[in-house]
Amino acid sequence: MNIGQAASASGVTAKMIRYYESIGLVEAADRSDSGYRIYSNNDVHVLSFIRQARILGFPIEQIRELLSLWQDQGRASAEVKVVATHHLDELNTRIAELMEMRDTLAHLAQHCVGDERPCCPILDGMSEPNVRQSFDHKGSKVSHPATIAS
Q1: How large a percentage of the chain has pLDDT more than 70?
Q2: Nearest alpha-carbon partner for 24 in 60, 56, 48, 54
Q3: How far is C-alpha 120 from the chain's CA centre?
Q4: Where is this chain's protein located in or outside the cell (predicted)?
Q5: Do 6 and 44 form a contact (C-beta atoms < 8 A)?
Q6: Predicted confidence (pLDDT) per residue in 82-107, tens digit
Q7: How many Cβ atoms are within 10 Å of 125's Cβ, its own excluded?
């Protein structure tokens, strides 16, 4: 099958297939006599694996490692689990950071009247050295020396 058909069958765009080939994530496709790329069902299966790994948020280097493990029938599943749990830990950290960002921004937006006056708690909060620490656990603004002096 050609690159368009492989893209359609795998869910990976032709542009990404060419990119994956250029970085050595997948082997370069065979070529027809006229120079067109030719993909096998196995190539499509590998591309589908990569697509699923990308959907799960794995970065390219971890996908490279997972592909290697997937293709190694002698590997222990424990090796795969190490990669997956490391990625899970990274995701949990990112989720916690995103939730904290969301909560901080929601707090700032809630305290902004949004009228025609130039006073803006959102911008005031963002101008703090650490906007997340500028509020205590109850959502009240904590006095900072810089704020008191002004």
Answers
A1: 87
A2: 60
A3: 32
A4: Cytoplasm
A5: yes
A6: 999 999 999 999 999 999 999 999 99
A7: 20
Longest dimension (CA), the chain: 77
Q: How far apart are CA 82 and CA 56, in angstroms?
A: 15
CATH number (3.40.50.150, 1.10.1660.10, 3.90.70.10, 3.40.630.10) of 1-75 reads 1.10.1660.10
Burial of 38 per CB tally in 10 Å (0-12, 13-18, 19+): middle
Computed over every residue of the chain, the mean pLDDT equals 89
Question: Which residues, 6+ apart, have CB-to-CB distance to 68 below 8 Å?
Answer: none
Contacts of 134 (CB under 8 A, 6+ apart): 125, 128, 141, 142, 144
Domain-wise residue ranges, the chain: 1-75
